[in-house]
Amino acid sequence: MTKPVINWQKSSFSGDSEWDCIELASVNGQIHLRESEAPDTVVATDKAKLRAFLLGVKAGEFDHLI
User: Fold this and answer.
1) Strand, helix or coil at 1?
2) Can you tell me the distance from the alpha carbon of 64 to that of 43, in angstroms, rounded to the nearest whole number?
3) Cα distances (angstroms) measured from residue 47 to each of 10, 24, 27, 33
4) Per-residue pLDDT tens digits for 9-64
5) 5/26: higher pLDDT
6) What is the pLDDT of residue 50?
7) Strand, coil or helix: 14
8) Contact 33, 47 (CB under 8 A)
9) Are residues 6 and 32 in contact, defined by beta-carbon separation less than 8 angstroms?
10) Neighbours of 23 (CB within 10 A)
């Protein structure tokens, strides 16, 4: 079976620097996340869970981790 072509997207805040980044892609209705330094490790979730997480990030719920 042929693997689907996945178009990974990273934040524009990553720029062209040497910093590692988180990349996202939409695959068959799921959202896949990976770190650019470990591209073979992928986490899959759905849009509702990603939306809830991003709202939490925007609200500062995870600021204590950085």
Assistant:
1) coil
2) 23
3) 17, 11, 11, 12
4) 988 877 776 567 889 999 999 999 999 888 899 999 999 999 999 999 999 999 99
5) 26
6) 95
7) helix
8) no
9) yes
10) 19
